UniProtKB/TrEMBL annotation, chain A:
This is Cytochrome c oxidase subunit 1. Belongs to the heme-copper respiratory oxidase family. PROSITE patterns: COX1, COX1_CUB. The gene is ctaD. Its EC number is 7.1.1.9. Keywords: Cell membrane, Copper, Electron transport, Heme, Iron, Membrane, Metal-binding, Respiratory chain, Translocase, Transmembrane, Transmembrane helix, Transport. It holds the Pfam family COX1. The chain crosses the membrane at residues 33-56, 76-105, 117-136, 165-192, 204-232, 252-275, 287-311, 323-346, 358-379, 399-417, 429-447, 467-490. It comes from Drouetiella hepatica Uher 2000/2452. Signal peptide: none annotated. It is found in: Cell membrane; Membrane. GO terms for molecular function: cytochrome-c oxidase activity; heme binding; metal ion binding.
TrEMBL record, chain B:
Its EC number is 7.1.1.9. It catalyses: 4 Fe(II)-[cytochrome c] + O2 + 8 H(+)(in) = 4 Fe(III)-[cytochrome c] + 2 H2O + 4 H(+)(out). InterPro entries: CcO_II, CcO_II-like_C, Cupredoxin, Cyt_c_oxidase_su2_TM_dom, Cyt_c_oxidase_su2_TM_sf. The lineage of its organism: Bacteria, Bacillati, Cyanobacteriota, Cyanophyceae, Oculatellales. It is a multi-pass membrane protein. This is Cytochrome c oxidase subunit 2. Residues 161-272 form the Cytochrome oxidase subunit II copper A binding domain. Keywords: Copper, Electron transport, Membrane, Metal-binding, Respiratory chain, Translocase, Transmembrane, Transmembrane helix, Transport. Its cofactor is Cu cation. It is found in: Cell membrane; Membrane. Subunits I and II form the functional core of the enzyme complex. Electrons originating in cytochrome c are transferred via heme a and Cu(A) to the binuclear center formed by heme a3 and Cu(B). Belongs to the cytochrome c oxidase subunit 2 family. It comes from Drouetiella hepatica Uher 2000/2452. GO terms for cellular component: plasma membrane. One of its GO terms (molecular function) is cytochrome-c oxidase activity.
Amino acid sequence: MTNIPIESIPVLGKNPLPPAWRKYFSFSTDHKVIGVQYLVTSFVFFLIGGLLSMVMRAELITPESDLVDRSLYNSMFTMHGTIMIFLWIFPSLLGLANFLVPLMIGARDMAFPRLNAVAFWMVPVFGILLMSSFFLPSGASQSGWWAYPPVSLQNPSGDLINGQVMWLLAVAISGVASIMGAVNFVTTIFKMRAPGMTFFRMPIFVWTVLSAQLIQLVGLPALTAGAVMLLLDLTLGTSFFNPEKGGNPLLYQHFFWFYSHPAVYVMVLPIFGVFSEILPVYARKPLFGYRVVAISSITISVVSLLVWVHHMFASGTPGWMRMFFMATTMCVAVPTGVKIFAWTATIWRGKLRMDTPMLFALGAILMFLFAGITGVMLGSVPFDIHVNNTYFVVGHFHYIVYGTITMGMFAALYHWFPKITGRMYYEGLGKLHFWLAFIGTNLNFFPMHPAGLMGMPRRVSSYDPEYAFWNVLASLGGFLLGMSTLPFILNMVSSWVQGKKAPANPWRAIGLEWLVSSPPPVENFEEIPVVIAEPYGYGKSEPLVSNAAAMTQEA
Amino acid sequence: MKLRTVLTLAAIAIPITLISLWMGQQAYSWMPPQASAESKLIDDLFSFLVILGTFIFLGVGGTIIYSIIFYRAGKYDFSDGPPIEGNVTLEVVWTIIPVFLVIWIAGYSYHVYSQMAIREPMEIVHLHNPMEMESAYAAPEKNLDTQENVTKGAPESAVVLPPEEIEVHSRQWVWEFRYPEQNVTSTELHLPVDRRVRLALQTEDVLHGFYIPAFRLKQDIIPNRTIDFEFTPIRIGKYRLEDSQFSGTYFAVMQADVLVESPDDYKQWLAQAANREPSAAYNQAASEYSRFSDKAIKPGWPTIVPAPAPLVNQPGATSLKTYSQ
Ligand code: HEM
Ligand SMILES: [Cu+2]
């Protein structure tokens, strides 16, 4: 109960006090505090997942298996993938959405603040649960982030509490937490919008969060059900997926990908939103085709529910099904392409200012363009039959998860850093971070494409010498990428402690969040704003709200 | 003004097209040798995808880079850009072009896939559609799409003989091949050149993936099922078979040599192997398991015990190119 006085202090004094760091360690129900809690927690896991990948790249710098034991290597790529998806990308996006969505739609908090806090605190719980499996005698899970049976059911230790069980529990808890988050976001966006904030006045970031969270509501029950059935097979000896007892391992693949393909859009859509917010600010132009971009987000969510079998083209999938899902996969490329064109048109003839957020956003869009092109290639069944489960796929999705999502997340963190902390970051360190990360990403992940085309399978800890050249390059890129986080950490910590004080709107940006002070006061708005314009009125000099003075009025 | 725009666009499009075509040619060299009839079809498709992909990447990426270079705000220029909010014609055009492109890609891919006729797993539904036609090489009928003979890339002999039938048995972590007619077993996969091959893929434990990069062909192997898989090797030589579906601790070493031989060499090999007494094959997984792990970092976690080395007529060389020493 110690949190009560800490929380209530800023409410009493109308002027927000300087952020008391202790509130970030308490069970706070303030969406902004929870947002920061998500961001910091997930970044810690990003570093842990990154360390695992450094060890993997060190193993792969030579063709022989000479650094780590094979079983340890297998658990490393399993944990790396799981941590990066469930403990970095998902929670960091939730952190961003938590901080921004109520501010952007003119609400004082989320619809269910307590549920919000509970959902957050489940993240460290399952994170620690997952990590602790490294210390079990049977070791951490070694079946990859897909956990395909029968390998995931093999349990050589015979222990009831083994790495795979812990992994499944963690994923199930994560699923429950995400469903709680999804209910909260969808309700907030539908019910808590300020007067005048119609759907077609919402910033694209809000649209993309809505699209992503709707996918979570539809898809997550499938993943959680699949995980629970696998858990039952593993612990109680049921036979859903166990072929030895007449179960069907392919059924699991359908459960898994029915959720996990849409999940990639859960991860990327909010980053599309970030691009759509950042480009107009630093190009001083309205977002091109605002309505089309908004609708294409929803279209992507719907179509993405119908393409999952493209992850199973080489599996026990009959030919007609391969052809059908090739067609749907091709469809999803269209709304995605439309977005890229819209961003390009947004910066065309703009007045560009290449500050760090803009650098990250444009770098990420270029890499997304590349990843989208290799994605369409993968959607072509005959070609995918060659490269499925090779490093080509690993290259494709790392251009997404690092090149697009993580770089986009950095763009967002720099852009909203003044709003979140009330301080400015150091531009020079930011640019250094960008260049190290941009070069590192390409050096790390581009060589995976030729290695995959030559036939190098993914998930191997040793490989034939002809793949060595590309792997050496990739490892060097990986180490560079590891280094690139250092200027970022230095920048964030030192700016937060001693950076220049930030004004309310350092970027001359349009948006409700930029009308309130930096950082925003508890409960955000003195008076709920009344919105009278579309979100990207750059070059039009029209007011966004009719009560600007009253909503930020200070006693 | 109008003419100038057209000329400028043409001046940009022509070099981009040329570069894309050139990249499409290069694409063949990024692939392993073309050792199966199917690999030719797939490489042509890939080359086509690279041409389109390069064109789009250069077109869109070039526009972005151009904007970054030429539309910078001056240091003290705090004005806004033109408030353009959209352009319906442009938006319609850039929706229709991708629609057209993906239909083209899907159509071409469909065509290639039906020409390959690799007999993918098909237990779920038995529709009579083009996807389930008989193998083009086994029965030289007409291709349903094109009404032309589909033996593109495969010489005449391929269509004369019935497909050579071979069983593929996979287990953690070794491949074993059985030639039922001669009752020969081997841990090397010997194949006759220019002749249709029909494999019966089976696994005794977990999922495995049958993948020969030089053939561009891959098929997961599923417990309790036998999956038919067909293709035509067309180039004599030695290739690698890799397990492509993660199968546990020693997944990385589950490889085998593939030897494509002339029909005579192949027959001779079969005859010799049939006369040889079965002996234990070299087994990388088992030998690593029995050896004390010499890795720098070893947790000592329990693992599935590798299946014992199979007794086969042709034990194969100890041919893994990489050892874990
Ligand atoms: C232009 C649209 C895209 C298409 C057509 C596409 C297509 C594909 C296909 C067919 C695969 C399966 C390849 C295989 O395993 O053989 C794949 C894998 C993957 N894609 Fe994409 N993709 C696209 C964009 C994206 C986006 C936007 C994301 C992320 C947000 C993404 C993330 C992934 C991931 C994570 C995997 C690999 C999962 C795994 O195997 O572990 N892709 N993509
Ligand atoms: Cu997918």
